Amino acid sequence: MKISVLTPTYNRADLLEKLYNSLIVNSKYHVDIEWLIMDDGSTDNTKETVNKFISEKKIEIKYFWQENQGKMIAINNLVLHTTGDLIVDCDSDDYFTDNAFEIIKKAYNENPNDDEKFYGMCFLKFDTKGNNMGKNFKNKETTMFDLYFKEGEDGEKTIVFYSNIRKQFQHELEHNENFVTEARMYHKMDEKYKIVCYNQPVMICEYQEEGYTKNILQQFKKYPYGYYKYFQEILAKNMHKVKFKKRLYAIKHYILFENLINQFDNTSIHGFINKLLHILLFLPGKYRTKKLFLRQK
């Protein structure tokens, strides 16, 4: 079994060693590892740092550089160079648990996915204090859409993809934006495949102040078209068994991004109740959007 670890990075040379060391620790589990790094136009010493890792010859490392285009394009480009049976994204501020690849190897042996039923194996993600960043899985087999919209999940997970399936998909960007939520691609994958779930952590996350999850309103304003398409695609789905709270969440966010791009579209929304809620909430949502972003400015 070979696993391809994808890391897009921008001016985070000081963080890469922790991830590098976690890969070295996990190499003892007799798993072939290739670490693919996309330097997204860094101006710090990222290249020198990675070259030092390469010179140590402890694991296979492939370094790439691109003009600054953002995380999603970096990942799209890295996927093209993978040779592993499995693919997992790992941000530069994340790293693997000491037994991550032992867990992943065992799960892969249980589910080699010869029938291509699954697009990935899904594991827990912990923070640096040892806290679960989400909830334990309720079901062994599910989809990412069902997990978050029907089963009550609201935290983070780690997906280890089967590479033959993962390579059929990419992150779709809108209007020359350079970011879109990963969930948009997951939901496309959900249409044909499922995930198989394990209540074991394989990754540790340590958010940085300048990360995407910080200052979320600025991210919304900077990348409205990608988010708009994401929520539009959610509301085009059959919402049977979707929790009302999540249904309302999707509609309110759809209205938010409609207003940010000066759009109103009720035609793509599936179901009478959703259409009605959209109409009833549109004007209050428009007022709320203006007030929210005026205050943020």
Molecular structure report:
Strands 1, 2, 3, 4, 5, 6, 7, 8 and 9 form a nine-stranded mixed beta sheet that branches. The protein has helices at 16-26, 46-56, 71-79, 100-110, 144-149, 163-166, 183-190, 216-222, 224-235, 244-260, 272-296, and strands spanning 2-9, 32-39, 60-65, 86-89, 94-96, 118-127, 141-142, 157-162, 194-205. The chain is of the alpha/beta class. Helix content is 41%, strand content 20%. The chain contains eleven helices and nine strands. It has two domains: 2-205, Spore Coat Polysaccharide Biosynthesis Protein SpsA, Chain A (Alpha-Beta Complex), CATH 3.90.550; 216-296, no CATH class.
List the helices and strands and how they pair.
Blueprint: E1 2-9, H1 16-26, E2 32-39, H2 46-56, E3 60-65, H3 71-79, E4 86-89, E5 94-96, H4 100-110, E6 118-127, E7 141-142, H5 144-149, E8 157-162, H6 163-166, H7 183-190, E9 194-205, H8 216-222, H9 224-235, H10 244-260, H11 272-296
Parallel strand pairs: 1-2, 1-4, 2-3, 6-9
Antiparallel strand pairs: 4-8, 5-9, 6-8, 7-9
Q: Sheet with the most strands? A: 9 strands, mixed
Which segments are poorly predicted (pLDDT under 50) over 5 or more consecutive residues?
none
Rg, Cα atoms, Å: 20 Å
Q: Compute the number of strand runs.
A: 9
Give the tally of structural domains. 2
Helix vs. strand class: alpha/beta
- Report the total helices: 11
As a percent range, the share of strand residues is 15-25%
Note the gap between the termini.
Answer: 50 Å
> And the CATH topology of the largest domain?
Spore Coat Polysaccharide Biosynthesis Protein SpsA, Chain A
Gross CATH architecture of the largest domain: Alpha-Beta Complex
**Superfamily at the CATH H level of the largest domain?**
Spore Coat Polysaccharide Biosynthesis Protein SpsA, Chain A
The CATH first-level class of the largest domain comes to Alpha Beta
The residue fraction in helices comes out at 40-55%
General form: globular
